[in-house]
Amino acid sequence: xxxxxxxxxxxxxxxxxxQWIESIKIVDSGIARLVCRVIPARCPFERKIQLFxxxxxxxxxxCKLNPLYEQLVELRYKSLCYLVDECGEDxxxxxxxxxx
Length: 100
What we know:
Layout: H1 3-23, H2 29-38, E1 47-51, E2 54-59, H3 69-85
Antiparallel strand pairs: 1-2
Helix pairs in contact: 2-3
């Protein structure tokens, strides 16, 4: 099995899960709030190590290595939209920065 066919089989393994996540409809404010709390606004692994305002080391976001990353971000977005459009909530609480 070469690398290309191995990559295709990995993609097909996640395909049903991707489709299931994409098909989720947000219709409950409690679920929407839970999704917004559980799925972070940005990758928690991204870091800048600085000394005297100079970046010494930058650790790129590892979340993009997650095969379900795009679907989870989309689910969070749908939840935020539901809270704003249907519930009239202020969602800025879900965008607080992490240590910046």
